[in-house]
Specification:
This protein is α+β, with helices and mostly antiparallel strands. It has 2 domains: about 120 residues, Creatinase/prolidase N-terminal domain (Creatine Amidinohydrolase, Chain A, domain 1, 3-Layer(aba) Sandwich); about 240 residues, Creatinase/methionine aminopeptidase superfamily (Creatine Amidinohydrolase, Alpha-Beta Complex). The chain has 9 helices and 23 strands. Strands 4-3-2-1-5-6 form a 6-stranded mixed β-sheet, sandwiched between helices.
Length: about 375
């Protein structure tokens, strides 16, 4: 017997729900798809019902108040919970089996089962087709990357304009030390003006860059690598951009320059291998081998126990989530035409800092197409 599909979440944070409805809402609402990709339903509060009826991609939009009214006719002595109303509504549609996302609310699932429904949790991806981007989705990601590039230029522009101080080589701008916080603030201001929401932007200099997810804090210095990793979400479309560049104000030390060139070459190795049908693990292993052969091996430091080299995946899917399927890494996942993925090799050593470069590509039958337009350079 085929099953319907049910989601209860806030679409601003649940990509599967937004994908199904194309309706942004900060508060949770119910989405039901009848078996066999049949009629679709939404149940929302009075606050959202008119907007949903006007803009949501859904066949029928219901007001919770109307559902509550019908429930109380059947149960005049009781006050329903939200879970009661959800179970009542699904039963009204004549549905006996439901597939739900793995993060579906447990209390609601229990109430549905108590009403006699079969509830089947489904692992990601809830909508497998979400991994394959339509031409319109690729355009939305390109637009997000254009905004990301504007934010990147705003940040790098501050570093370029900074004066190198005497002595310790600290960077100064407009009479004040140039810090990670100042650069990040300028990037965020630029992104917001362009209709994007920034998220945990990384501006990480020197030794801080040896931790790939360190956002960075404090003064920035010349002749040290500075990682800028920017990944905003467009407020209008919901699609994400993602880009990383590593720069150095002034002359880069020889080791940093060699690391940057090795990462750039490893990224080209990945570009040359990404195509329809290739194993993501194969791409990742080729990138790792390239970095090792260039003199940047991966391992654990014998004294400190810290990880060094290239110890994260080569890339991840990008779309309505910043990290989605497929992955390019140690887990063997096949890349297929229509996937949009990042390619972001890097190397990290506490006594040097970090170097990472990241572009976004769309997988095509005979290769991949780079959607990122911003140039790559080290010294500024």
């Amino acid at each position: 017997m085929d099953a319907g599909r049910l989601i209860y979440a806030a679409s601003e944070s649940a990509a599967d729900l937004y994908y199904a409805t194309r309706f942004f809402a900060p508060d949770p609402f119910l989405y039901l798809e009848e078996p066999g990709r049949g009629v679709t339903h939404m149940a929302t509060s009075a606050l959202e019902v008119d907007r949903a009826r006007r803009t949501a991609r859904c066949d029928r939009v219901h007001d919770w108040a109307e559902i509550r009214g019908r429930w109380q006719v059947a149960h005049p002595e009781e006050q329903p919970t939200l879970e009661d109303l959800a179970a009542f509504f699904v039963v009204e549609q004549g549905i006996a089996r439901l597939r739900v996302p793995g993060d579906f609310p447990l209390l609601m699932a229990d109430r549905l089962r108590a009403a006699g429904l079969v509830v089947i949790p489904e692992a990601e991806p809830f909508w497998p087709e979400r991994a394959f981007k339509t031409p319109e989705e690729v355009e939305a990601i390109e637009a997000a990357l254009e905004v990301t590039a504007r934010g990147m230029e705003a940040g790098i522009g501050m570093i370029r304009a900074a004066r190198i101080g005497d002595g310790d080589g600290a960077l100064w701008l407009d009479g004040e030390p140039l810090t990670s916080e100042r650069v990040r603030g300028e990037i965020h201001a630029c992104l917001v003006r362009l209709g994007a929401a920034p998220h945990h932007t990384i501006v990480s200099g020197g030794a801080q860059g040896a931790d790939p997810h360190e956002v960075g804090s404090g003064p920035l210095f010349a002749r040290q690598p500075i990682i800028l990793d920017i990944f905003p979400r467009m407020e209008g479309s919901g699609y994400w951009g993602d880009m990383t560049r590593t720069v150095c104000r002034g002359e880069a030390p020889d080791r940093v320059r060699r690391a940057w060139e090795a990462v750039r070459a490893a990224q080209e190795v990945a570009f040359g291998r990404v195509r329809d049908g290739v194993s993501g693990r194969e791409v990742h292993e080729a990138v790792t081998d390239s970095l090792t052969q260039a003199g940047f091996p991966t391992g654990t430091h014998p004294e400190t126990g810290r990880q060094e080299g290239f110890f994260h995946g080569t890339g991840h899917g990008l779309g309505l989530e910043i990290h989605e399927s497929p992955r390019i890494g140690g887990k063997d996942q096949t890349l297929l035409a229509g996937h949009v993925v990042t390619v972001e090799p890097g190397v990290y050593y506490p006594d040097m800092g970090g170097v990472r470069l990241e572009d976004v590509v769309v997988v095509e039958p005979d290769g991949c197409r780079n959607l990122t337009r911003y140039p790559k350079f080290l010294e500024i």
